[in-house]
From TrEMBL:
This is Transcriptional regulator. Signal peptide: none annotated. It comes from Desulfurobacterium indicum. InterPro entries: DksA_N, DnaK_N, Znf_DskA_TraR, Znf_DskA_TraR_CS. A zinc finger (dksA C4-type) spans 89-113. Residues 84-119 form the Zinc finger DksA/TraR C4-type domain.
Length: 127
């Protein structure tokens, strides 16, 4: 894990724990959803021994889009923590505030860029 100019090592460690926890919860949700849907016993038996990657690959079509997207965001954020780029805005390169990350640990943009993006989306949405 590399440190960076936006967050202290302690804060990065904190976010890593939060993200790992969210990831675990989300995977549990996904598994439960699949298990509820799974009719074949064989399918259920296999699922227990499967890794996250295998589950996602096998059941990609059945995992809700929203969950899959969120999981990918979490994975990306965890990767950024390792690379030392977590908490840095992807748009302008400035620091995303600690408070914002606490509310939304998968945030990729600082609040200014996020608002700009939303304004843009609204604009194009109206046209
Ligand atoms: Zn920004």
């Amino acid at each position: 894990m590399k440190g960076n100019q936006c967050l202290t090592k302690k804060q990065l460690e904190e976010f890593r724990e939060i993200l790992e926890q969210k990831k675990r919860e989300l995977i549990e949700d996904i598994k439960r959803g699949i298990l509820e849907e799974a009719n074949a016993e064989r399918e259920v038996g296999d699922l227990v021994d499967m890794s996250t990657e295998e589950i996602l690959r096998t059941f990609e079509m059945r995992i809700r889009d929203r969950e899959a997207k969120y999981l990918k965001k979490i994975e990306k954020a965890l990767q950024k923590i390792e690379e030392g780029t977590y908490g840095i805005c992807e748009e302008c390169g400035k620091c995303i505030s600690y408070e914002r990350l606490k509310l939304r640990p998968v945030a990729e943009l600082c609040i200014n860029c996020k608002l700009k993006q939303e304004k843009l989306e609204r604009k194009f949405g109206e046209e």
